[in-house]
Amino acid sequence: MTCAAKTLLAWALFAAFLIWVAVLAFAHCFYNWDMVAYAALAMDWSGTADPHGAVYRAFEAEVPEPVMRELIADGYPRQVAESSEAFASQLPFYLVKPLYIAVLAALHRLGVPIVAAIQAVSALGVMLTCTLMLLWLRRHLSLGAAVLLTVALAYASRLVDLARVGTPDALSVLVVLLALFLICERRLSVAGSLLLLLAIAVRTNNVVFFVLATGFLALREAPPVRRRLLAVLGGGLVLWAVIGAFGRSWWTLFHHTLVQPLVFVDQFDGPFSWALYGRVLARAGGELLVRDIAASSVLWFFLALAVAVYQLRPALRPWLGLAAANLAALFLLFPLIANWDRFLVPYYLWIAVALVGAVAPHGHSAGQEQSWG
Which among 57, 176, 235, 351 is least surrounded, fewest beta carbons within 10 Å? Predict the structure, then answer.
C-alpha cells in the first residue's frame, strides 16, 4: 500500500470514528434528569415563556416514551415535575455552569430543539477532544498509529461515554485538555491558564485545578509572565465567587447528591455535620475497593500509567503532583465515586499522551524542545 493510500485510510478511519461518536450521542443517549434542568435554564435564557412547563413539553416531544416515564416517575422526579416551586429550587444547582447553559441557549435561539442541542454539544465536545488528541499524538507517532491510539484512548478513558451524557462534562474535558496542551506542550502559560479560567464557567469544580496550576506557573515563571498569571488567578477567583453567588452552598449540594435528594431545596437548613460528612467519606473510601465499582472505573489503570510517567518524565512530576492534589480535593469535596471518571477524563488523556511522548521512538520530534518535559 502506498504512503498516500495509508494516509487516506487513516483519515477515513478517523472520520468514521467521529461519525460513530455523533451516532452514539443522538441515537444512544443516556437520558437523565440533569438534562431537564439544563434545558429549562437554556430555554429561559433564550426567552422561552414558562420554562417549567415548556421543558417537559419539549422532552415529551423529543425523547422516547419510556424515557419520559422515567423522567416523571414516582418520587423525586414526579414531585419536581408537578411543582413549579420545587422545580425552581433545583435550578441553582445547575446555574453555576453558565458557559454551558449559554451555548445551549444560543443553539436553541438558532432553532435547534433543546434536547438535540444538548446532544450536539456533548457530541461536538468529544469529537473536538478526539481531534486534539490526534494532533497531540501526531507529534510523537505516525498518522495511522495516532488515529488508532486516539480511538483506543477515547474508549479506555470513557471519553466516548461523555458523548452520550447530556451534561457539561464533554465541553469541560475539551477546555481543560486544550489548556494542558498549551501549558505542557507549547509552554503558553498565560493562554493555558486563561482556558482553565474559562473552564470554571463550564464546571465550577475546575476551580481547584485552575488555582493549583496557575499558582504553580506563577511561582515558576519569570516576573513579567508571573504578573499576568497572578492577574489571571485573581480574575478566576472573582469569577468563581460571582458564579457561586447564584448557586447553592457546598453542604447543600453535598447533602442533595450524596445523602438524600432535596425536593424543596429552599427549605433545607441542615447544619454541617462532621459525623455525617465522615460517614459519607468512609462509604466513598470503601467504594473505591468494592469490586463492581472498582471494576467499572478506569481510575486504577490510569494511576498505573501515571506511575510510569513519573518514572520516565521527571519534568512532569510537578504536574502529576497537581493532578493528584486535584484528585484528593475532589474526594474530600464531592466523593461521588461511582461517577468519578467523568471529572477525570482530561487528566487520564494527558497522562496517556505524556507516556506516549516518553516511550515513542521519535518522542522528541520537531517542536518538542518547547515542551515542559
Answer: 57
